[in-house]
């Protein structure tokens, strides 16, 4: 049974302040918990229903993780999901290490993406398109927010991220590095020849790429519109741009 | 001031049953209300803050719509949005008329899309890509659900829809009509030559296209994956498929 202190600790991780203080975050629901046990994340504690634990013992015991058996009601009380009939894991956050796009690699730069749901969706999209590195501005939503983790559908285990001053990062790149940025008035991505490596910058939900980052964008790109909608959601736009990038890469 | 009966009537429209009974639905927030006043929808009543009404009188008075001035607190109490400092309109639903894709036209078919947020996003994406007709299975979320209207960001005014038996609809199409469907094991959309007209079927969030509709799909299409994510959200997939369709159409 969970102690009062354990409950308090787990509930504190709903908040960014305590996630940073303790260096830990929550992973909730059957699929996400299974994925995190198959990843290189270090797991502090597993809280699971008896049924989930029995079905997944082989997976969860590999890391010799301390396990607490709990009811569905307990899981929902200590966690953030409306319904969770499986498990919750307390997982160690990773070190904030700088990331550079390698040759033949695409990395994403997120400039002030505020909505956790959008960020989670972008992790999932990045994972689908084989993007392994995401550089986030300090103002971008916290990737360890339970909503981000949940929306990523397990993809948080296969994508790496770094938080920092993305304008400064971009200012230190060499001249030959391709930096694409999503704008409403750029080149048509259906005809633009994307290179095979570099960075794609996506901006804030309302205001797009900010003035500090904009000067470092070498190529402004736009998804052509055929109708009346003023814009696309930033997750949707990220997917369409990465799809065009991959599609062009395929053709060369 | 709103009467008790008006409040009761407006609040009843949160529910599908009463929207169907009264043939009316709610449009909330500044942008959506402005868009609906510029559309061919018939508007029963406008409830607005004094500031919104003053700024938009020219727009709202064209239809000679009855107007009630209300406070922000009132708007939030009668509507569904957490915050609404502008307006709410009660709008007449449209007749459920059958839709056929014309020559050089793409129409969407939604087979059991359950989530209102996804449906709203799909309306916005359809609008972006110039898709004007959406055929929905009876089990697809109600397009008049306030969450759908809100997520569509005004695009509900530029897209038409029909609800009915989509399998039966498809069974009555001629032999030469292109019916594409999104599956996880179809042809790669990066190399597939899309035609310039026809239907694109998108299936349920968890189970994809159902067994009643599947036999009528002539070409199974798939977005190629380059990473570890098992799937893409149905809204994201719709955008990427329509983008590929438009891109191919551009090239021919």
TrEMBL record, chains A, B:
Record GO biological process: methylation; RNA processing
Q: Where is the tRNA/rRNA methyltransferase SpoU type domain?
A: 106-242
Per its UniProt record, what Pfam families does this chain match?
MRM3-like_sub_bind (PF22435), SpoU_methylase (PF00588)
Q: Which GO terms describe its molecular function?
A: RNA binding; RNA methyltransferase activity
In this protein, which residues make up the domain named MRM3-like substrate binding?
5-81
Could you list this entry's UniProt keywords, alphabetically sorted: Methyltransferase, Transferase
Query: In which domain of life is the source organism classified?
Result: Bacteria
What's the name of the protein? RNA methyltransferase
CDD domains (alphabetical): SpoU-like_RNA-MTase
Write out the similarity annotation.
Belongs to the class IV-like SAM-binding methyltransferase superfamily. RNA methyltransferase TrmH family.
Where are the membrane-spanning stretches?
A: none
């Amino acid at each position: 049974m969970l102690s009062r202190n354990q409950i308090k600790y787990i509930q504190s991780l709903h908040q960014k302040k305590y996630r940073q203080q303790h260096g830990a975050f929550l992973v909730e629901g059957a699929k996400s918990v299974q994925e995190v046990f198959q990843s290189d994340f270090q797991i502090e504690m597993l809280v699971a229903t008896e049924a989930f634990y029995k079905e997944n013992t082989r997976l969860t015991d590999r890391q010799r993780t301390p396990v607490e058996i709990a009811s569905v009601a307990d899981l929902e009380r200590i966690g953030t999901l409306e319904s969770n009939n499986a498990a919750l894991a307390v997982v160690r956050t990773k070190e904030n290490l700088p990331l550079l796009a390698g040759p033949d690699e695409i990395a994403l730069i997120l400039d002030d993406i505020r909505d956790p749901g959008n960020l989670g969706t972008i992790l999932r999209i990045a994972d689908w398109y084989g993007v392994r590195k995401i550089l986030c501005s300090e103002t971008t939503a916290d990737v360890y927010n339970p909503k981000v983790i949940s929306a990523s559908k397990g993809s948080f285990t296969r994508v790496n991220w770094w938080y920092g001053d993305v304008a400064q990062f971009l200012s230190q790149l060499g001249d030959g590095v391709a930096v694409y940025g999503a704008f409403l008035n750029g080149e048509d991505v259906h005809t633009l020849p994307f290179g095979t490596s570099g960075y794609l910058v996506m901006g804030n939900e309302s205001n797009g790429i900010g003035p500090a980052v904009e000067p470092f964008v070498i190529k402004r790109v736009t998804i052509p519109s055929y109708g009346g909608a003023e814009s696309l959601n930033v997750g949707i736009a990220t997917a369409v741009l990465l799809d065009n990038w991959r599609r062009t890469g395929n053709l060369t």
